[in-house]
Amino acid sequence: MGQVIQFVSKSERERVRLIQEARAIYDSIFPSADPVSERQDKAAIGRDGVSSLS
Asked: What is the rounded distance in angstroms from the CA atom of residue 23 to the CA atom of residue 10?
């Protein structure tokens, strides 16, 4: 009870799909240097209070 159903048009779904596909292609061409060390760096910054992680 209390659920909200949101209408998403076919064109909006296609737009989202194309964006996801483009991001996947971009990531395959330009991979991140080292995702594990980047996460550790962000965590270290977050512990110092300079940056927060969501």
From this structure: 20
Tokens 């996947």, residue located:
24
- Is residue 6 situated within a structural domain? no
pLDDT for position 33 = 75
Domain count, the chain: 1
Q: How far apart are CA 1 and CA 8, in angstroms?
A: 21
How far, in Å, CA of 4 to CA of 6, rounded? 6
- pTM of the entire structure? 0.49
What span, in angstroms and rounded, lies between the C-alpha atoms of 36 and 27?
16
- List average pLDDT for each run of 10 residues in the chain, which is 54 residues long: 90 97 96 66 55 48
- What is the token pair recorded at 24? 């996947």
